[in-house]
Each structure stands twice: as C-alpha cells, then as structure tokens.
Design brief:
With 255 residues, the chain is an alpha/beta fold. Helix content is 29%, strand content 12%. The chain contains seven helices and six strands, in the order E-H-E-H-H-E-H-E-H-H-E-E-H. Strands 1, 2, 3, 4, 5 and 6 form a six-stranded parallel beta sheet that branches. Helix 1 (15-29) crosses helix 7. The longest helix is centred in the C-terminal third of the chain and has 16 residues, at 196-211. It binds flavin-adenine dinucleotide.
C-alpha cells in the first residue's frame, strides 16, 4: 500500500524525528511504498497568504476560500501546495507524527493542513459533502503524537481529557470531515524524559499500530447522511448510546 508520513519537529535528533524514521523503516520493511514530508526540513511555509494563489491580482481583496477554490480547480496553486496535494491523493494512508504542543499540532503542521486541504480539494461545493463517503473515502489516517504529560492525565478521569477528545479537531474536523477514516491515535506519554527501555517499548507498541494501519477498526464516527443528524446537523435525540456525553457522542454507534 502507499503511505504518506508527515512529520513536524525542528530537531532531526528529536524523539519525534526518531519515531518518524522508525515508522518509515518499519512500513517499508513490511513492503509498503512510503513518501515523507519532513516539514521543518522542507522549510514548509506555514501561513496561507496571497502567494498561495499565483493568479490572484495584488490589488484585489483576498477572499481566502474563493481564491483557494478558484486556484485549486484551475490547477493554479503554488507548486509546494500542489506537490503535497499530489502526495495526499496518492496515499492510501496518512501518518502524522508530531509533538503535542498546546493540545494541538505544531504551527508548521497546522499550516500544512491549512494550505494543503484547499477548497476544491478537501472541502467546498466542488467536492462531496463532509462526514460522508467523502472526497477521500477509502483512505485511512493515524495520528502519532508524543505528549509531555503522563498517561493518567489523559485517562478517563484525567485532567486533560482522553487523547481522542484532545485530538478531535484533527480526527473529526480534518480527517473524518474529508472522508478519511481515522484510527485511534497512537501516543507516547511522559515524553520529556524517555529512557531507552521506554523508547524500546514505545517502538514495539508503535510497530503494532503501524501493522494494523489497514486492518484495525477506525474510530466509529457517524456519517452525516446516515440518519443520525437532522437538517441542522444536530444529532437526533435518542440515537446515542446510554451514558455517553460530550464529544464521545459523535463517535459512538447507536445505543
Ligand atoms: C510549545 C510546547 C507546548 C506543549 N504543550 C503540551 C501539551 O499541551 N500537552 C502535553 O502533554 N505536553 C506538551 N508539551 C510537551 C511536549 O509534548 C513534549 O516536549 C514533546 O512531546 C517531546 O517530544 P520531542 O520529540 O520534542 O522529544 P525530545 O525532547 O526530542 O526527546 C524527549 C525524550 O526522548 C528521549 N529519547 C529516547 N530515545 C530517543 C531517541 N532514539 N531519539 C530521540 N530522543 C530519544 C530523549 O532522551 C528525551 O529524554 C509542550 C511542549 C512545547 C515546547
């Protein structure tokens, strides 16, 4: 299968970079075709601006969604964005490797998302509706994060909430929105102080998750057209499993 690994860390000797290299080697050894976007090494430009749309006249007000869709449909995006879009289209699965920074992805990775998933590519009137068998149906995604906090702080009663809820904006708002089926995230907790034996354990656990990239069950998010939502995109009363609340509501099959 074809897999795109996107990694985001400024230090090539970091834990994040080591895990990204491990993932690439492991997947290739298993016979997959792997391409890599190492965003800091590529000096990826993180902000959307008029330079992303070479045909945009400098004196015109920049309406980002409109310019984005126009340039995408005309095949007139900047070359760096077009190259990343080609990789996403090519891939059967996408792995994002990053350190959890302020409960989210580092800005450079957020900028990769903002710039690559343009209108007309990932969303908008020219592509299928969100949360359906959408534009990228059939693809899978795995978030692989390192987090400084200990696992208990992300546990059922942990102060930070579950890692699935913390990463909900990416899991549901990016992947599922565009039809990509996200797997449960993989996380290495307590990552600021990781002796070699815990790193070895982390590699073993990561290998098992990479081996299941195409066989493990994705998070069971609901589809917009599956009969669970009303016209206003609100979950209908009574469709949730008893006892579920908050973000988990949208990820639980009917009760
Ligand atoms: C701006 C910012 C915001 C943050 N926000 C959050 C947050 O919201 N929630 C949270 O939980 N944490 C947060 N953190 C902590 C952050 O998640 C961790 O610092 C990060 O995950 C550590 O990963 P790293 O790749 O930077 O590790 P590094 O600093 O590169 O390494 C971490 C440890 O891994 C060890 N290690 C073992 N084997 C290897 C190897 N082979 N290669 C490299 N290193 C190895 C290193 O020796 C070191 O002890 C934040 C940090 C920053 C800077």
């Amino acid at each position: 299968m074809k897999i795109l690994v996107v990694s985001a860390h400024p230090e090539p000797r970091s834990l994040t970079a080591s895990l990204a290299r491990f993932a690439v080697d492991h997947l290739r050894a298993a016979g997959h075709e792997v391409r890599v976007s190492d965003l800091y090494a590529m000096k990826w430009k993180a902000t959307v601006d008029a330079d992303d749309f070479p045909d945009h006249a400098g004196d015109r007000r920049l309406q980002v969604m409109g310019a984005s869709e126009e340039a995408t449909l005309a095949g007139r995006l900047s070359a760096d964005v077009a190259a990343e879009q080609e990789k996403v289209r090519w891939a059967d699965a996408v792995v994002l490797q990053f350190p959890l920074w302020w409960f989210s992805a580092p800005a450079i990775l957020k900028g990769w998302i903002d710039r690559v998933f343009t209108a007309g590519f990932g969303y908008g009137p020219a592509v299928p509706a969100p949360y359906t068998e959408g534009v990228f149906a059939g693809k899978r995604a795995l978030l692989s994060v390192t987090a400084g906090a200990r696992p208990s702080a992300f546990s059922d009663r942990g102060i930070h909430g579950s890692i699935g809820d913390v990463l909900y904006p990416l899991q549901h708002g990016l992947f599922w929105f565009t039809g990509i089926a996200p797997l449960e995230p993989f996380a290495v907790y307590g990552s600021n102080d990781l002796p070699e034996e815990r790193f070895a354990e982390a590699r073993q656990a990561y290998a098992a998750r990479l081996d299941g990239l195409f066989t493990h069950e994705p998070v069971p998010f609901r589809t917009l057209d599956g009969g669970d939502y009303d016209h206003d995109m609100r979950l209908l009363p009574g469709v949730e499993a008893p006892g579920t609340e908050g973000l988990a509501l949208h990820a639980r099959p009917r009760g």
